[in-house]
Amino acid sequence: MAVDDNDEAVIAALRASRSNIVSILRASARMDKGLAAVDARLSLGLESLDAVTEAVAPLQSQAMATKALHARINRAVPPALSLLRSFALVESLQRRLLRLSSRTSSIPRLVDFVECVDRLRETIAAVTAGCEPAVQRLHEAVEFLSRTRATDQLRIHRLRETLVALEQLYEAEVDGLRYDGPLDDALLRLQNDYEAILDLLKHRYIAAHVDGGDDTTDPSPPVLGSELEIEALRRISETLASNDCLDICIDIFVKVRYRRAAKALMRLSPEYLRAYAPEEIDGMEWEGLEAAISLWIHHFEVAVRLVLAAEKRLCRGALGGVMDGAVWPECFAKIADRIMAVFFRFGEGVARSSNEPQKLFKLLDMLDALDRIRPAFISTFDGEAGGDIRARCRELQKLLVHAAARAFWELGLKIEGLQDRAPPPRDGSVPKIVRYAVNYLKCLAGGGYAASMERVLRTEAVWKAGPLAARPDAEEEDLLSDALSNVLEALQRNVEAKRGEYGSRDRVVPHVMAMNAYWYIYMRTRGSELAALVGEETMRRRFKTAAEEAAYSYQEEAWGPLVRLLTATGDVEAFMMGLDENLRRHRSGYCVPDGDLREQIKEAVAKVVVEAYAGFLHANAGVVVEGRAFLPPDAIKRYDHQALPLTSKVLTFMSNRV
User: What is the pTM of this model?
Assistant: First the structure.
């Protein structure tokens, strides 16, 4: 078989590879022999090393023990030295406290004293924190010496006795530093200084408000104490709190500041707050109660805007740094609760007292005062701590709204006659209930009370309807106008009822009374806010027309029979006797207080009587009756009865008798 060139090349390559493999195998055999020789030499070295290790082992153990003892001593000595330095600093600060205590009292001295107390407390805290670790480290060192026998047993025994004594000293000394000695005396001194500074801060500005003349609407309350005094109080508060005296600090603050606030308000002379319990208010004379309510309004504003607002600022400044500001709102609430409770008690007593109509205006004044002071009130008694005071104020407002509504409707009951038992005036003058009601309603409509009364009526209506009632047109309802109109209608019914109480003995006086009453209502309300609310045209149509109708009835009843007597019978003597009788009755029995109404009645009566007499004369000209000639009309006008002209006698009621 023939071999080509490629096959020869492959064979040559295989031969070369075999030669290389043989060379590698021979080299590996030589290396194996070398490794065996090295292994023999290493075995001899390790045997020698084991012998050396056995000889050195005790020395190594002793060195490790010495190193451990050194580490324990290094751990025990620094805490002990630090503890000794702290004890030395405590002694130095105690001596400094004694020196500061012996100096004259002043705010700067007090600040230095507080700083020294704080440093002493911190140092005692360092001693307290450092004693136990130091003793523990010393205990570890003694135990190690005992276990390793690094020294003799006598020294170890003495070390143990010393350690026990040190532990006993630590317990006794630290307790003494914390609860007895100069620190305790200093804290007692601070409590006394704290109370003294608080007692010095008086509401000196209150004298300007004793008479109620000064404005209390200034939004910025007065400041109690200087910046240095407030800073001293703050530092003392924080120091007392950090020394477990927080309860004592709070008790002192609340006691002293309540006493100062109460004394400030007592300078306003609020005897009414002490003289009458709520259940006794109905027994007060109205003039006294009215004056007391006026004082209550002024004193309430002074208490909130000035006294308690200043107390709140002082409370925040003195206690704001204690417990991250969580303490001072509660302290202020304790002071304010006791003071405001007295004002709320009186206000609630007024609101719960009898529903006399005259109380309405003072009740509205109280409501206006609460509305006016509301921003300052919310600002003074904000937050969770003021929640109880705000809730009680809302309750007082509700009571006042109900009381004002009841007082207003009580007027309607009186007018309707349910409680008005007074008989009608005998002389036909204006009934007292008419005068009272008109003046009352005019004051309500035009005395600055309209808006308040409207709000009361609207609030009362909403409360009665309930929260679920739909009142889309509530804002458009003119509740006050409707209420006033209803009272005036009741007043008209009252007049008509009295008109029927006269009986049949005198048929003239009921018309005189009605004429006087309606004319009084119309004239006293014309052009007033009351007429504007109810409607000028409504008032004219209702009361001027009624007065004119009553005047016509009066004229018909008083002078009609006399005129008919003259025209029907021509009996002049009977006419003159009737004229005299009418003159006497008008002079002594009837009263028309209004001058304008008197003039109108005079003209109307004179016209009727004189025209009737003139007509009679014209029909009987020149006739003589029983030998007497008729008097001319002018003589009738000038007719003198006991030296009084006819016009005066006919209108004797012109005399301004009420």
Answer: 0.73
